[in-house]
Specification:
This is Chitobiosyldiphosphodolichol beta-mannosyltransferase. Pathway: Protein modification; protein glycosylation. It is a single-pass membrane protein. Its EC number is 2.4.1.142. Helices cover 46% and strands 15% of the residues. The protein is of the alpha/beta class. The strands form 3 sheets. A 7-stranded parallel beta sheet has the order 3-2-1-4-5-6-7, sandwiched between helices. The longest helix has 41 residues. The C terminus is likely disordered.
């Protein structure tokens, strides 16, 4: 009898188990049907966004106007015949040609309050997930219902959360193709802020690994990053390197153009407002600007013999860039100039005017530090320039400085790309991958500390020919190299050659990438090829291009 009762109990348990399984299967199917139905509804083109096979949707959880690479994607996609939707935050003014283009529609997200790094760690941990959840719902709604189903979604990473998982879900529901543009790794950015051992860092690392694993195309900004995605992270999808390149309107200005631009910009006004050294500026009279002058109003412009050297640095004012290096180097240069020049300020060591552009959380802090520096032969001013004025300022400068220190070690500074686009030599902070962009003593110089940067300023600008900068052998040599190498390929040409063929046949791109995924190269130990020898790099690069 007991045996029969045990069998009955066992049968009832099995029956309940089967029912549970059946319910789970039914619920799963119901959710799948629901998601597919939502995807069907969302695929209907709304009135504001006429798309079809030529639809192209860009997603960046940041200020769209302050995302130059994504704006370049948008411009190139329109030129290739796509109808473009852009999802992101409204902030900096957009370039006129994009804002007024009928083929581009901007969908602005409501920007939530920034999670301040100064908050107590507990409050930071509480607020950050809430912000991510709210942002995830907003992004999902806009991507699903405000934007029709395009041929491809191109997503910028970082920020990783919640962009990657939301766009993976949206892409699955609409059965389209996903492209991830890897500017950097979200996990290394978080690690730089919170530390490698932080639970947030570990969660973001796992999140990025799971949700960034598969895409039709993985775009990288450097060969080193492509090798990491291929070997270390074993991403599924086509991996291709699309180097940043400046558009055509980035170029070196003529002397007359420099004169006209600085007559309107009037940097001398900012110098007077932001510095205490009234003797730093040359006298500016009729037919004169900060850097140039004309003998007559209708005559040609020439550089002034009493002008300052113009040095540009663009920064995000974050802990990712050690701005103190530049301040220390400038102070050392100024101390040397005071000692060597004596009472003849600027006679040997030229006056250096640093114009620092950009926005960021540490801007006010460094402005206060600068205001307390007692400098005679060096001046700093900070400003924010429009998208139209920024390349003109670069095109009129003598030197650029990059303080970018890569959190991942495999990204490249966009600011240097802009400078090179204007044939402007740079002094750049050294890290391994930088050599893919800056070739020391060829198109620029590299430094690792303030002392080295100061020495470069001394080497370049001691007895610098202010009125005839084109006679400076080293700087002009670097400009010549840039004009005959870097400037030969612009962004549009690079995009059309490297990315457009893959976008034209996305199904084939995906199928080919899956065949490549079976290649035995994936069986190699990542530790054996994480830092390949120089002799092997060409083979790796060829493999990535095939």
């Amino acid at each position: 009898m007991e045996h029969v009762e045990k069998l009955s109990d066992l049968n009832r348990e099995n029956l309940n188990y089967d029912k549970s399984n059946s319910i789970a299967i039914i619920v799963g199917l119901a959710f799948m049907v629901l998601f597919r139905f939502i995807g069907y509804l969302a695929s209907k083109p709304p009135k504001v966004s006429p798309v079809g096979k030529q639809g192209f949707c860009l997603v960046v959880l940041g200020d769209i106007g302050h995302s130059p690479r994504m704006l370049l994607h948008a411009r190139s996609a329109v030129n290739a015949g796509y109808k473009v939707d852009v999802i992101g935050y409204k902030g900096s003014r957009l370039p006129e040609d994009l804002e007024s283009n009928p083929s581009i529609h901007f969908h602005y997200l409501t920007e939530l309050p920034r999670v301040s790094e100064s908050l107590p760690r507990v409050l930071y941990y509480l607020f950050a997930p809430i912000k991510a959840i709210l942002l995830a719902f907003q992004l999902f709604y806009v991507a699903m219902f405000n934007v029709a189903a395009p041929a491809v979604y191109l997503v910028q990473n970082p920020p990783s959360i919640p962009t990657l998982h939301i766009m993976q879900i949206v892409n699955w529901l609409k059965q389209r193709h996903l492209v991830i543009d890897w500017h950097n790794y979200g996990s290394t950015v978080v690690a730089h802020r919170l530390g490698q051992r932080s639970i947030f860092t570990k969660l973001v690392t796992l999140y990025e690994k799971v949700w960034g694993y598969k895409a039709t195309i993985h775009i990288t900004v450097s060969r080193a990053m492509a090798r990491e995605l291929l070997y270390k992270f074993e991403k599924r999808g086509k991996i291709t390197t699309l180097y940043d390149r400046a558009p055509e309107h980035f170029r070196q200005l003529t002397v007359d153009e420099v004169h006209n631009f600085h007559e309107e910009l009037k940097l001398e006004t900012l110098v007077k407002k932001q510095t205490l050294n009234s003797n730093f500026l040359p006298t500016i009279g009729a037919n004169q600007a900060l850097l140039t002058e004309k003998k007559t109003a209708s005559g040609p412009a020439t550089f002034r013999a009493d002008r300052p050297v113009l040095i540009i640095s663009s920064t995000s004012w974050t802990a990712d860039e050690d701005f103190q290096i530049l301040l220390d180097a400038a102070k050392q240069y100024d101390d040397l100039a005071k000692l060597e020049n004596g009472n003849k300020a600027g006679s040997i060591y030229r006056k250096l005017l640093f114009v620092i552009t950009g926005k960021g959380p540490l801007k006010q802090h460094y402005e206060e530090v600068i205001s307390k520096m007692n400098l005679e032969n060096v001046a700093f001013i900070t400003t924010w320039l429009s998208a139209e004025d920024y390349p003109l300022l670069l095109g009129s400068a003598d030197l650029g400085v990059s303080l970018h220190t890569s959190t991942s070690g495999v990204d490249l500074p966009m600011k240097v790309v802009d400078m090179f686009g204007c044939a402007l030599p740079v002094c750049a902070y050294k890290y391994p991958t930088l050599s893919e962009l800056v070739v020391a003593k060829s198109n620029g110089l590299v430094f690792e500390n303030a002392g080295e940067l100061k020495s470069q300023f001394v080497h370049l600008f001691k007895n610098f020919p202010l009125d005839k900068p084109e006679t400076h052998t080293q700087l002009e040599g670097m400009r010549h190299v840039l004009k005959n190498s870097f400037q030969l390929t612009r962004w549009s040409e690079n995009w059309n050659e490297m990315l457009l063929p893959l976008l034209r046949n996305l199904d084939k791109t995906w199928a080919d990438s899956q065949m490549f995924a079976e290649n035995p190269v994936y069986t190699l130990n990542p530790r054996d090829i994480a830092a390949p020898l120089e002799d092997d790099l060409e083979d790796d690069d060829q493999l990535l291009d095939d």
